[in-house]
Amino acid sequence: MINYLLKSGILLLVFYAVYKLWLENEKMFRFNRAYLLGSLIFSFIVPLQLFSFKSLFENKLITIQLEGIMIKTSDTVLDKNNIDQAISFVLIGIYVAVTLLLICRFFLNLYSFHKKSKRNEMQLINGEKVILIQEAILPHSFWKSIFINKNEFKNGKIPLELLAHEKAHLQQKHTLDILFIEVLQIVFWFNPLILFYKKAIKLNHEFLADEAVNKQFDSVKSYQKLLLDFASQKTTIPLASNINYLITKKRLLMMTKKESPIKMGLKIIAVTTVYILSLFIFSTESIAQTNDAEKNILTNNNAIATTPEFPGGIEQFYMFVGQRFKIPAEASKNKLEGNLLMEFMVEKDGSLSEIKVLKDLGYGLGDEAIRVLKLSPKWNPASENGQPVRVKYSLPITIQTDK
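Given the sequence above, the corresponding structure tokens read:
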């Protein structure tokens, strides 16, 4: 999981940097919309390695470095695993608690729109459903409705440009983008890059809506003045598209910026190249995982569909070794401490073979480790392209005797 989050985070950062450097200041709003949404999808899908490109230099043997365990004189497994488990439980608890709070907030916001739609007067204006509400709010839109203040509407204080702006949001289905990013933010709330993408997506929505208004009314200066009149009003509605969202100099300049088809074409080609390279790099890099244990992959670009699995999971394997490992009397007598390094192969049938001591401490500790590993039941073997494959493991064992 950590490996996946790191990879997705790297991709998100790369694509966001590309957007800020190459695309944000270009008048190619529809492409930018697709790019931002596509980058989010790409960044969270590709690290799953649902498919992969085979490397030109395949290495048929995969070595997985396990975290390792500690053996004490009391014959218990190193408390490190228990500490790691406790930390994991705490982190999972925090994640679940925050996620549940965000889910509740999300549905409360959805319910607020439903409540406003049901409890207030509705009118059809230019084919769009407009909800007239009593609150003193700026015009905003969500799903298939535009929400405006009833008194201002009745008194003719809502300019047609504002209605056209919100209508553009509805016609271009910007609510779907917002809901998508909100769901991602709920799941990956710990990743600050999601907030940057959310801001970029919503600002691009405003570029698109501004463009639609200027095409309809063909009066950029008067529309800019209208926006500036609303610039000091900071009211925002969660999940909604708001007329005054980030009324900045950049937004005003975008209305008069000239397009350069050649420049846009070159940037699209460059961005496409970044996508292809990222896909190739992150689909050829191997990822090997056994349950929740973190491993180092000592292989050269060779992806496996599944890794070997000890019955019950890797933590059960650690317990299996720890409970059966007996520190020889001589090692205890000499108060020996240090690290053994073992290596073994999980065969195609799940049995262990080629059990070796790569680093020994003497006093029969290496032999004891070999004895315990030979007692292991068969693992569920690894597979590649539906065929069982051999996988080599490296297992550090820390020995700690009583002082």
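The first helix runs from residue 2 to 23. Try to locate this feature in the token string yourself.
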